[in-house]
């Protein structure tokens, strides 16, 4: 059997571990694997690379994706879906394994509905895909953010200033929630819960009173209850997402003014997405890759591999991409116990 694989959307630690697991497992079964370069762009343009055992040697710890990625949306391109089908026929692909988040898997769901055999693998550092308890990449991103917060505590305390740490998280604040809890943040601000500026100022002043300096962890998609979302630019990608960034700097300026203490903003940005995956992410990505090939062999389609508890299961792609998995308010309430 010829299996096609692609990685789409923002890159994420663990993508190469999935590619390796798919190839290792497929080749052991006598199957062939073809990689498409740069996500759906590679399928549109018939840009392929043959993946054998030699091609995946050494990939397990490597960050990013050797296949490249893009945010290409074939359904936003005239004749796009037809070009996808033509390439898959030309390449004699019997099953496709797209590895991606809501956008990449949204395209996968449409292709499966049109009769192509598709088994999706969920990835995003944001951990906001529904249908799976965790996506790989998230644990690594939280580890990077936690280490940054640990380091910022000591410099903030030395200078008696507020440090605002802006982390990724467009619609869901999972990275902020976990990194803030792991790093002992003074306040954590999420997109799911518009924040009250007065309350944040109060928590910061309280922290200064204790002789220590506040660390405010804010998701890029968070916004004040009485204000608009802060965006770095009005630009949108092919799936219509606005490019975010800037809330950290605005908040730091506001806190400096309102607390009377110096404040600085640190934007972790793509540092959270780069580099080697954590052990958890390597194992999860590997298990997802193995499960995807097993599902292909069983003739399954329109499904996505997912983690439920400690088990890897299959769920309908359409169900997993219907809505985002947001931070429940009770999880936020757990972090609030430590505010101030
Ligand atoms: O979707 C994952 C993500 O890392 C988001 O958290 C973030 O908003 C976005 O990608 C950044 O995208 P880009 O790499 O295109 O700037």
UniProtKB/TrEMBL annotation:
Catalysis performed (reactions): beta-D-fructose 6-phosphate + diphosphate = beta-D-fructose 1,6-bisphosphate + phosphate + H(+)
Site residues, Important for catalytic activity: 123
UniProt: substrate binding residues: 124-126, 161, 168-170, 220, 264, 270-273
Enzyme Commission number(s) from the entry: 2.7.1.90
Gene name for this UniProt entry: pfp
Keyword Iron among record annotations: no
Domain Phosphofructokinase: 2-295
Summary of activators and inhibitors of this protein: Non-allosteric.
UniProt subunit comment: Homodimer or homotetramer.
Residues the record marks as site: Important for catalytic activity and substrate specificity: 103
Function as written in the Swiss-Prot or TrEMBL entry: Catalyzes the phosphorylation of D-fructose 6-phosphate, the first committing step of glycolysis. Uses inorganic phosphate (PPi) as phosphoryl donor instead of ATP like common ATP-dependent phosphofructokinases (ATP-PFKs), which renders the reaction reversible, and can thus function both in glycolysis and gluconeogenesis. Consistently, PPi-PFK can replace the enzymes of both the forward (ATP-PFK) and reverse (fructose-bisphosphatase (FBPase)) reactions.
Catalytic site: 126
A GO BP annotation: canonical glycolysis
Species, as recorded: Geodermatophilus amargosae
Highest taxon listed in the record's lineage: Bacteria
InterPro entries cross-referenced by the UniProt entry: ATP_PFK, ATP_PFK_prok-type, Phosphofructokinase_CS, Phosphofructokinase_dom, Phosphofructokinase_III, PKF_sf
Full protein name: Pyrophosphate--fructose 6-phosphate 1-phosphotransferase
Molecular function GO labels: 6-phosphofructokinase activity; AMP binding; ATP binding; diphosphate-fructose-6-phosphate 1-phosphotransferase activity; fructose-6-phosphate binding; identical protein binding; metal ion binding; monosaccharide binding
Family, per entry: Belongs to the phosphofructokinase type A (PFKA) family. Mixed-substrate PFK group III subfamily.
Keywords tagged on the record: Cytoplasm, Glycolysis, Kinase, Magnesium, Metal-binding, Transferase
